[in-house]
Design a protein that fits this description.
4 helices, 0% strand, elongated
Length: 96
């Protein structure tokens, strides 16, 4: 039997309570107003790009991962570059 839930969360890893609130808001918007209301809710969510990526990534983890990889490659950024950036951003020396 096929799963007909268009809001099935494929990967909940890293979702915050606020992300779950947004996921439920998207579901309610769609149930109340269909595709037009869902598009409006996504537009509102997109005002916070980090949360948008987490929420959309919960529904489509592989697609989001590939899109990020593609964009990094287009910008000339490797995985090692990203790891170095993360290390720099997490470094305590940054706070001094």
């Amino acid at each position: 039997m096929a799963d007909d839930d268009p809001f099935k969360v494929e990967n909940s890893e890293g979702l915050t309570d606020a992300d779950w609130v947004e996921i439920n808001r998207l579901k309610r918007a769609y149930e109340a107003g269909g595709q037009k209301a869902l598009s409006k809710a996504f537009a509102e969510l997109a005002k916070d790009p980090v949360q948008y990526v987490r929420v959309v990534g919960a529904f489509f983890p592989n697609d989001v991962r590939e899109a990020i990889k593609d964009e990094m490659a287009e910008q000339g950024m490797s995985k090692d570059d990203l790891r170095e950036l993360i290390r720099k951003l997490e470094s305590p020396a940054r706070d001094q």
